[in-house]
């Protein structure tokens, strides 16, 4: 990186929003868990390299979602009586409509996750098309107009933020800079969507998916369960929120499903914890914002 590039970095915070307001959670809860899943299927791999479409074993990692992972997660959530939000790429909906329809039939929220799972980069010419094509697919296949959005690869740009406002997105869930919901402020000072920040340690991809070409090893259940419980307990003491980023091609595998079952069973036993969808948490924020 040259000196000119360094000198061009703005001397302002990247996020202009103030720290999240301390709005109360619905009684009797004192903390919250946004239970969310990212359904990418093979688009998790083709978005890195379109040539992966011809690498059939690489593609099989993503195909696991429709064949096994998502049905197993839906079964687990039904057993536990929990509802969550499934951010799903348009490609996955078009390729596996029966999987997507099963999520809707089970009563879970559907969120926008792009079409091809392409990383939002500054000035990328495809982002508007990615958003519009994702909306079109969810409406055509599922009859859903999503109110929530999660960025592929968890990346964001100012242009994307403006595009989401234009398309009526109520909330996003991509940033890692708070432990409670807050409202974005666009660069021109106007309000943006509500942000439901992600809790980085609850991204199962970091702990439980190891491909043939990855140097990352799979963490044992005891390590991850300890990490997740400790984070949840401290967040409950803060009266804050945790947000999961769970992938069916990871947490839908046998050892990881057992881990998730134990963790969600533990979470359900916390009487002060509201386990719910992004739509419900954003709705609570809107209600408190209007009252304030």
TrEMBL record:
Indicate the segments forming the NodB homology domain, all copies.
55-276
Q: Which GO terms describe its molecular function?
A: hydrolase activity, acting on carbon-nitrogen (but not peptide) bonds
An example Gene Ontology biological process:
carbohydrate metabolic process
| InterPro entries per UniProt | Glyco_hydro/deAcase_b/a-brl, NODB_dom, PgdA-like
By sequence similarity, the record places it as follows: Belongs to the polysaccharide deacetylase family.
The record ties this protein, via PANTHER family, to: POLYSACCHARIDE DEACETYLASE FAMILY PROTEIN (AFU_ORTHOLOGUE AFUA_6G05030)
- Record function comment: Is involved in generating a small heat-stable compound (Nod), an acylated oligomer of N-acetylglucosamine, that stimulates mitosis in various plant protoplasts.
What protein is this chain from?
Chitooligosaccharide deacetylase
Origin organism is: Methylobacterium frigidaeris
The lineage, from the top, is: Bacteria, Pseudomonadati, Pseudomonadota, Alphaproteobacteria, Hyphomicrobiales
What gene is behind this protein? pgdA_3
């Amino acid at each position: 990186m040259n000196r000119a590039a360094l000198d061009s970095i703005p001397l302002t915070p990247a996020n202009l929003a103030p720290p999240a307001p301390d709005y109360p959670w619905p009684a009797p809860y004192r903390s919250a868990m946004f239970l969310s899943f990212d359904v990418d299927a093979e688009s998790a791999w083709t978005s890195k390299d379109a040539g992966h479409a011809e690498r059939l074993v690489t593609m099989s990692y993503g195909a696991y979602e429709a064949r096994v992972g998502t049905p197993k997660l839906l079964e687990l959530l039904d057993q536990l009586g929990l509802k969550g939000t499934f951010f799903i790429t348009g490609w996955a909906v078009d390729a596996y409509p029966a999987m997507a329809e099963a999520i809707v039939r089970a009563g879970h929220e559907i969120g926008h996750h792009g079409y091809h799972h392409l990383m939002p980069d500054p000035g990328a010419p495809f982002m508007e098309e990615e958003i519009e094509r994702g909306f079109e697919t969810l409406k055509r296949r599922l009859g859903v107009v999503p109110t929530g959005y999660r960025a592929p690869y968890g990346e964001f740009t100012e242009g994307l933020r403006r595009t989401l406002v234009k398309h009526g997105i109520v909330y996003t869930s991509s940033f890692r800079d708070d432990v409670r919901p807050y409202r974005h402020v666009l660069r021109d000072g106007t309000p943006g969507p509500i942000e439901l920040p992600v809790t980085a340690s609850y991204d199962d991809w970091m702990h439980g998916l190891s491909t043939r070409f990855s140097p990352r090893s799979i963490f044992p259940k005891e390590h991850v369960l300890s990490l997740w419980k400790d984070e949840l307990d401290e967040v409950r003491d803060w009266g804050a929120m945790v947000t999961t980023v769970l992938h069916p091609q990871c947490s839908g595998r046998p050892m990881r499903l057992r881990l998730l079952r134990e963790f969600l069973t533990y979470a359900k036993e916390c009487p002060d914890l509201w386990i719910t969808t992004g739509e419900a948490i954003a709705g609570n924020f809107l209600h408190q914002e209007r009252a304030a």
